[in-house]
Write a structure and sequence with these properties.
- With 473 residues, the chain is α/β, with parallel strands linked by helices.
- It folds into four domains: 130 residues, 3-Layer(aba) Sandwich (Rossmann fold); 169 residues, P-loop containing nucleotide triphosphate hydrolases (Rossmann fold, 3-Layer(aba) Sandwich); 76 residues, Helicase, Ruva Protein, domain 3, CATH 1.10.8.60; 68 residues, Arc Repressor Mutant, subunit A, CATH 1.10.10.
- 48% of the residues lie in helices and 12% in strands.
- It has a five-stranded parallel β-sheet, with helices on both faces. It has a five-stranded parallel β-sheet with strand order 7-8-11-6-12.
- The longest helix is centred in the first third of the chain and has 31 residues.
- It is flat and about 100 Å long.
- The two termini are 55 Å apart.
- The relative contact order is 0.06.
Length: 473
């Protein structure tokens, strides 16, 4: 069953009746009306997908009806029927928003094909609109999760630069979400209706990358059997994101510099210049200043790119964002997998917060995905996390000391870490023994409740949502 809702408006009862029977047999829901003004009143109250209307009717014409019904239901398709099959009339109707034009008399097949084609077009337009809205919703910069001070600085900068055409360098370690930031900038800019094209400069050999970026002409090299457009043409009017730009060669950097300066490029093997209108965003996990000093990155390109820099901090420098990120991934993967996982147990969450995350947000995402799939209950527990996370010790990264002063400092740090680990376990075990009741746990260990709560805050220890018998944190 198709279930689309159709309104037929024609002053001839026999036309309404025959069209209704044909369309209902095809699975459509159909209303009929012989008065155009009554048809407009019906359109105000029912969400018609398509209106089939006669061109020549009493009171108001089909053209006038078309204008008014489009004002009421702009998303509805309109198909015009007429016994006056004039080309000029058909063109005028289509200019006013009609999807198609059927001259009377028409066969059942003509009607069914015309209606089907108009509704298919409506479905495609609706799906495209939905996908655009989903993309824009997904890549709003508000959806880059985190409330740490460093992320708030990044948010402010993203919000300021998104509406501009400024070239931007996004810096951060692998897995910090640089492409997500680039997409957020694009979808919050005036170019959001055009394409966002992402290119991983580290994944392609230099010659291939040049062809991918600028395109090539037929016969430009062995295997180039036909001409091909590059990413600059594909992103015309939109945004081109060059990820890991520090991996490009000096020769390719020279070509990129010319594009930024002149807004033109030449496909490989061609002699004709092409104009380009793209916004360029670049990302790197390398120190470009050091590369410039070493001569492995062109200084002129660096200054052309580095108009605005957005620094994305590694996850270990914004640990307070880990609970929110982990919860976000739990909710996402619950929907995607259908698993019944709704939360992360406090002991598991504390292990996540303590871990250094060398793979950053991408690693956290993968860990939560794995845990959601493996979880047997409503919550992710510690033993469902990878061994490197739930191994029982907090990772401590201290370089081997080179002097006696460094040795003293390292020993001090080790002592502090050991005390912190003991305190954290002390609080968690007390809470576990007392079913996560703060008052009872504090009393059992001989501490004042405020002091016990202070330790909980210090180590970001949260309580399970489904705890019983507690008087609050």
């Amino acid at each position: 069953m198709k279930n689309e809702l159709i309104l037929i408006v024609d002053d001839e009862d026999v036309v309404c009746g025959s069209c209704e029977r044909l369309l209902m047999a095809e699975g459509y829901e159909v209303d009929t009306c012989q008065n155009p003004l009554e048809g407009l009143r019906l359109a105000e109250h029912k969400p018609y997908d398509l209106v089939l209307v006669d061109l020549k009717m009493p009171e108001i014409s089909g053209m006038e009806f078309l204008k008014r019904v489009k004002g009421i239901r702009p998303d509805a398709e309109v198909v015009i029927m007429t016994g006056f099959a004039e080309i000029s009339t058909a063109i005028e109707a289509i200019k006013l928003g009609a999807a198609d034009y059927i001259p009377k008399p028409f066969s059942p097949d003509q009607l069914i094909v015309s209606i089907g084609k108009a509704l298919e077009n409506r479905r495609i337009v609706s799906e495209n609109r939905y996908l655009r809205q989903e993309l824009q919703s997904r890549y709003r910069f508000e959806n880059i999760i985190g409330s740490s001070k460093k992320m708030l600085v990044a948010y402010d900068l993203i919000a300021r630069v998104s509406p501009t055409n400024t070239t931007i360098v996004i810096r951060g370690e692998s897995g910090t979400g640089k492409e997500l930031v680039a997409r957020a900038i694009h979808f919050n800019s005036a170019r959001k209706t055009k394409r966002f094209v992402a290119v991983d400069c580290g994944a392609l050999h230099d010659n291939l990358l040049e062809s991918e970026l600028f395109g090539h002409s037929k016969g430009a090299f062995t295997g180039a059997a036909s001409a091909r457009k590059g990413f600059f043409e594909a992103a015309e009017g939109g945004t081109l994101f060059l990820d890991e730009i520090g991996n490009t060669s000096l020769a390719l950097q020279t070509r990129l510099l010319r594009v930024l300066q002149e807004r033109v490029f030449t496909p490989v093997g061609d002699t004709r210049e092409r104009k380009t209108d793209v916004r360029l965003l670049a990302a790197t996990n390398k120190n470009l200043e050091t590369m410039v000093a070493e001569g492995s990155f062109r200084e002129e390109l660096f200054y052309r790119l580095n108009i605005v820099t957005i620094q994305i901090p590694p996850l270990r420098e914004r640990r307070e964002d880990i609970p929110a990120l982990a919860t976000h991934f739990v909710n996402r993967f619950r929907e995607e997998t259908g698993c019944g996982v709704f939360e992360i147990a406090p002991d598991a969450l504390n292990l996540l917060v303590d871990y250094d995350w060398p793979g950053n947000v991408r690693e956290l995402e993968n860990v939560i995905h794995r845990a959601v799939v493996l979880a047997s209950g409503r919550a992710i527990v510690a033993n469902q996390l990878p061994p490197e996370i739930c191994g029982g010790t907090t990772r401590l990264t201290i370089d081997t000391p080179q002097t006696s002063e460094e040795l003293k400092e390292s020993k001090k740090q080790m002592r502090e870490k050991s005390v912190e680990e003991i305190e954290r376990r002390f609080v968690i075990e007390a809470l576990k023994r007392n079913n996560w009741n703060v008052t009872h746990a504090a009393a059992q260990v001989g501490m004042q409740r405020p002091n016990f709560q202070s330790l909980m805050r210090k180590y970001r220890i949260s309580l399970p949502k489904n705890r019983l018998g507690d008087d609050g944190p």
